[in-house]
Amino acid sequence: MKGPVTGAEMEHNSEAGGQSEAPGGLSPNYNNSLGRPSLYDTYYLRTYQNYLSGDRLPSENHFRNIGSVADHQLRPTLEQIREGDFIKKDAGDAEADADQTELKGKVIKFGWIEGVYMRCLLNIWGVMLFLRLTWVVGEAGIVEALAIICAANIVTVITTISMSAVATNGQIKGGGIYYMISRSLGPEFGASIGLLFTVSNSVAVAMYVVGFCSSFSDMLREYAGEDAMIVDGGVNDARIIGSVAMVLILALAIVGMDWVTRVQLLLLFLLIASQVDFVVGCFMGPQDDTEKAQGFEGLSFDLLKENAWNDYRPFEGIDYNFFSVFGVFFPAVTGIVAGANLSGDLKDPAEAIPKGTLLAILTTFCTYIVYPIMIAAAAKRYASGDIRELNVTDPNGEMSMDGSNDTLYPVYNCTGRIDDCDYGTQISSQVMGLLSAWAPLIYAGCFAATLSSAIASLVGAPRVLQALAKDKLYPYIHFFAKGYGANQDPFRGYVIVFIVAECCVLIGQLNPIANLSSEVFLAAYALINLSCFHASLLKSPGWRPVFKYYNAWVSLLGAIICMVVMFLCDAIIGTVVLVITLLLYLFVSYRKLDVNWGSTTQAQTYVTALGFMQRLNQVRDHVKNYRPQVLVLSGMPGDRPPLVDFANALTKNLSLLICGHVVKGPITPRAKSAIQNQANAWLQRHKVRAFYSVIEDQSYEHGAVALMQLAGLGNLKPNMTLMGYKNDWRTCPRDEVQQYFSCVNEALDNYLAVAILRVKNGLDFSAEMGEDPTSPLHKSNTSTSLKGDGANGSDEGSDEPNDRSATSGDATPRVTTVDGKKKNGEELYVSRTGEPLPAQVVENLTQFRSKQKGFIDVWWLYDDGGLTLLLPYILTSRSQWADCKLRVFALANKRGELDTEKRSMAALLSKFRIDYSDVIVIDDVTKKAEQSTRDTFNEMIAPFKKDDESDIPDEISVTDSELLANKDKTNRHLRLHELVQQHSKDSSLVVMTLPMTRKGTVHAPLYMAWLEMMTKDMPPFLMIRGNQTSVLTFYS
């Protein structure tokens, strides 16, 4: 292999008078005397990529599925380019290399002729061409018959155009219409139609084989005599012949697609020969009186005019009209996906499917237009078949002259004697053989039509099943995903389809389900048209089909027509198919599969959400529509499950919930993405409908403020901040206390309500629980980029300064029960050593998921707009809190007005339509607190007291002047501590109005001491402060 040509070599060649070989195969006259590197010189190409900037030139491999590899190197990430840290090989490369292992054997890929065009011809020129086309002409007449054929082909042309657009919008793999529908409309629709398609085609194999057996038996009786039989000349003969045919078809499929194509090519020649035989016979005309007596007159314009209009009459006990005849004929043109079903075996599906299918439709359409005209011009609707009646002209009948005493009528006059007429286009199914030059060739064509359709179904159905199994959309079918050989042939699928079809052949009664295949095809056609319409309507940037000759509204019309035709063909089977499709859709939706195929349903979700967001942005706020939209500063949700569960109880899928997380940076985008994925997985696993927002900042305070200001979009933004109480405020660094206090003030400054939740054993369980073993952070020790970029170091930052970013839980999306276990009994919460957590810890973790009983005490101390009262009411509407009753505590303005204040509060609650069990008015809140209470408070703030000589800033200390200025407030809060201990010690939840101070009058330690005194040694305690805007009204 020749290496790159160096400049010295080129100069030497030039001096020697020879012609230098240009690098990369350029012309010999190539002149590189200026010393410029050729774009085709791989040496300079590698130099440019690896050393100059780290960028790589555009390559097809870079745009394949995630994890693809080009030249053993991944496309560099943004941080790798900017930081110069490149990875030449890692675990992802090994997986990609394994995927690209060359398969042994000869890979067979087909072009558009043998792969699509030929297969579509074989399926569209089906048994209907030989057995039902003449009947359609006899019933509908040539005018309406041509209208039926044109209408049916319009449906298939529209569907093919839509399919061509979908098929050319990127590369498609094996699975045919299942692959196209699932990647366009999503796994729910794809899985539904894929499974139905597999089952119906398995049954269709048997249906075609039984049709072959029936034709074979008819031929035996016609040419070998009525006594010709194998066993009984009936069902058992069909079972024997059908079983032999099934085994031969299975063997052909197992041998390989190459032999399948050869056999189908032979069958196609038989089909074409039989049609030529028919055309020649029409022009030759009847060869004897027997053919004339059976209704064959030869091509005649007068007969064409006679057969121009319809003559609908009952057939096999069923009354027919235009639409019912259309329903009978339509299955004849449903073979347009025969090539698409083998998409994985095509060289270029995007080119082969549109070209081959459209040309096949054009070819067959021409024959389906010409043949009915020839039939109408050559064959009578009714004929008795009695040669003696050829010369009878009296419509009232003449006596036979042969001594049989039979009454003879004109041979084509069957009025009143339908039982005596067994021939003609409206009665006999063998008219094609009658009109042909050599009838046995028509039988051969019928055999070719049935067997080719059976082969196509047996080969196509397992490939759809294989693609469905690979995607793991249904449980227990992954066994059929394995392929064998270079072409990944689905041998296991062949076997299961053979078994189903053979069972149906042995049963022999296929009439009730004979239309199932056609109905499933129509449902698939409707979804293909819907896929094209949906993608075009959404105008997604990823919708860029190479095939441009489509229209969204035409595709929608095609989808509607397909649905109508489903019910015209068979209303009962059509309804069954729709119901089964819906049930399968719901089943796949219920499983919540983790697939991401970029379907139009995903795009529709985005467009719909964007539209509603824009509409919501135009809606003015009203007090009756107020909902708490909560920003909960939870850090990683798995660190504080009780806090997230409580916030979820407030919103409960009916309002906005955002879990905010402040991480001390810097962290790489990849590590940040890993954190987001881990948090979102935890929320999904625990059935919490919330958004997760992570922000990177060196300061907890600044990060929290950024979340308050930036979280949400338009009117869908938080109006309330929920925080966990800082239990370690007395022992942590003082600047952390100041940051926590500042967050409360910043929330109020940003016009947000503030809520602080405190529970007895704390909210942070990151120290007790281990990391999620499936989380990206847990696996970071095997990833160089994560390990070196500080993903593990994100533990240094958190929402509250003393927290870590560890998470817990498992990777399986199970429903959590109140005992902290999955439904299958496995532990959902585990310790860092992987052992189950103690029962008490699990109880604390899940305390807000369990059923609550008792009282919710509402201490509505100040008018904050009513939020202190509204939140407890919302909680009582949730199932966990439904058994709790509200007790409302209020303060009296004057000691002698207790009854008046109580009646006023009760009346106000009644106007607000809020149920309560009791109203209690407190009149002695201004009473001096007990000495023991004051001693406890003084002991609490003693470490924060500032001496005159101390240089500690006032913001993180307590001065004597501050205590003196807030003496009355301090006493009120200490007194509230005593009252709460007296009245609400045994409640399930205590809700109290959060004290709010003027700026600069109270510093962080004193404020935290107030909160500590009011909430210590209590059941779950929520302190809430509205933004002084009404959230309750008694007006309608």
TrEMBL record:
GO terms for cellular component: membrane. It is a multi-pass membrane protein. Residues 1-30, 770-827 are annotated as: Disordered. GO terms for molecular function: sodium:potassium:chloride symporter activity. PANTHER family: SODIUM CHLORIDE COTRANSPORTER 69, ISOFORM E, SOLUTE CARRIER FAMILY 12, CATION COTRANSPORTERS. The chain crosses the membrane at residues 116-133, 145-168, 189-210, 240-260, 265-286, 322-344, 356-379, 441-461, 494-514, 520-538, 572-590. The keyword Transmembrane applies. Keywords: Membrane, Transmembrane, Transmembrane helix. This is Bumetanide-sensitive sodium-(Potassium)-chloride cotransporter.
